[in-house]
Amino acid sequence: MATDNAAESTTTYVADFMNKLVSLCKRRGIIFQSSEIYGGFNGFWDYGPNGAPLRRSVERAWWKYMVEDRDNVVGLDSTIICAPMVWKASGHVDQFSDQMTDCKDCKKRWRVDQLPVPGECPACGSHNLTEPRDFNLMMKTYVGPVFDEEHKAYLRAETCQPIFVDFNTIRVATRQKLPFGIAQTGKAFRNEINPRNFTFRSREFMQMEMEFFCEDEGSLDWFDYWMKQRWEFYTKVLRIPENKLRWHWHEKLAHYAKKAVDIEFEFPFGWDEVEGIHHRGTWDMSQHAKFSGEEAACSVFNPDTKESRFPTVVETSCGLDRICLMLLCNAYEEDTAATQKADKDEDIRVVLHLPARIAPVQAAVLPLSKKLEAPTRELQKALRAADIRTEYDDTGSIGKRYRRQDEIGTPFCVTYDFETENDNAVTVRERDSMQQERIAIAELPGYLLGRIHA
Question: Would the pTM of this model clear 0.85, i.e. be above it?
Answer without folding.
Answer: yes
